[in-house]
Design a protein that fits this description.
This protein has helices spanning 2-28, 31-60, 66-74, 83-101, 103-124, 136-154. By secondary structure, the chain is an all-alpha fold. Helix 1 (2-28) runs antiparallel to helix 2 (31-60), helix 4 packs antiparallel against helix 5 and helix 5 (103-124) packs antiparallel against helix 6. The two termini are 34 Å apart. The relative contact order is 0.09.
Length: 155
């Protein structure tokens, strides 16, 4: 559990750093160049990681079968391919907004959007997810979180 929390915290750090860097690139070039640079270098990085882990699986042989992997990939629902488009929306808006609103304001409203969407996704188990119903304590935590954001942005 602590590992996952730490990993998630590192993800949050990466989001803030990405917002700053993309905002800088967007100021020097434009939002489309910023998004393109993000995805080009991100694609190269994931290609390197994929090849590395593919080779580990290939030499392990007991865990990896390309045909099985391909068959599973072809069985995905159409909307399960949409995460790349969501990534494009996220990266484009972060790059555009961070240089105009500041990183804190940009990420604050990102978090608000994420939490409200996550509540709906979890409560109803949308898009094939497990149901985690909202209860009084979660609602109270959300109210305190919203109040905290209000005071944070007010200062």
């Amino acid at each position: 559990m602590f590992f996952l929390i730490g990993l998630t915290f590192i993800g949050g750090i990466a989001v803030a750093l990405q917002a700053r860097v993309m905002g800088n690139v967007e100021n020097k070039l434009n939002v489309w160049s910023s998004v393109s640079i993000n995805f080009i270098f991100g694609s190269l990085a994931i290609l390197i990681f994929s090849v590395f882990f593919y080779l580990i699986d290939f030499f392990d042989k007991k865990n990896f079968n390309f045909n099985t992997w391909m068959n599973k990939a072809l069985e995905l629902k159409w909307w399960e391919y949409s995460s790349g488009i969501f990534g494009l929306i996220i990266v484009g808006i972060v790059g555009f907004s961070a240089s105009r609103l500041g990183i804190v304001t940009t990420l604050t409203f990102f978090v608000i959007g994420q939490i409200f969407t996550a509540i709906l996704l979890d409560h109803y188990g949308l898009f094939g997810g497990k149901v985690y119903p909202i209860n009084f304590y979660k609602f109270l935590a959300l109210a305190f979180f919203s109040l905290g954001i209000f005071f944070f942005l007010k200062s």
